[in-house]
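Sample entry (301 residues):
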Amino acid sequence: MFTKLPPNVSVPMFFILMTFVLLYRFLFGSVVGILLCCIALYKLSGFLFGVDPLNFDELMMWLVTQGETTKAAVLSSVITVIGFLIAYATATSNWKAQLLANMKIQAAGEIEVFFAECSRLSTDCSLYAEALVEAVDKIQKDCALDDAVFLAHYNREQSQIFIQKRQRLVSMGIDVHRIHGKYGALLLSSPGLKAELDSATKALTNIIDKVWINVPFHVQGDQNVIQTFVNQVSVVDCISLKNAVEKNSSELSFASGGLRGNLMSTVVGFNFWTIFNLYKERSDFSNTIKERFIRRQKNDL
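Predicted structure, serialized as tokens:
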């Protein structure tokens, strides 16, 4: 519906509609909202219908003048209705809370597995880039011929593993947007969740942007394997990849871990031992928070 309208019209209409839906669900889909509607209807009934309802004193006076059968029927009806409303509200609230808890557990588990693999792949790619730099450095420092040949052949053989891991990491950089879409409504329902996922996604993107380094490959009939290997390796790009992983790996783990912790907090909750262990680890916790704050300030510069 909104796609056919210009943005300056569709965007305000979208937010107006979302606000209206939220108010409607609150007023007519919750016990508190229905109670407020009833009170408003009671107060405005004279203006809306031209009929003034009985106040509490008048209602009690009317009830006193009724017979015993009528009193018993009225009181039993009131108790039945109130009991039904309480039971319905309690059952509905518990059902929604259980579904939300299951969804949060599922999201937390999927996010943990996803970003744990991202961290592992990023580290493996960084280690390979570092190995290439070290190999070139050793060769250029006039190491033994046999050692130089071994370094060239070994790193070329490892290149296929690196390419597979790089391909997997790049595909995960695309799949992360599936998590945004799959759990978008859940992440927007609580403060800080989407910001943490955005931070982890940004860190992953920063790493992927530097992962496209030149990979050494075997040239058929090559007479100077060592020099070809050195020429194929871009030391600058390898160092850039290594620095990108060092710069963003902590944020990748911290943001994804914080996101998982926020999702699990409403399910697991705090107890005495949680507070005790937090106080016990307060020094490391404080240092971690400080390091992240300083690192994010540097990244923003």
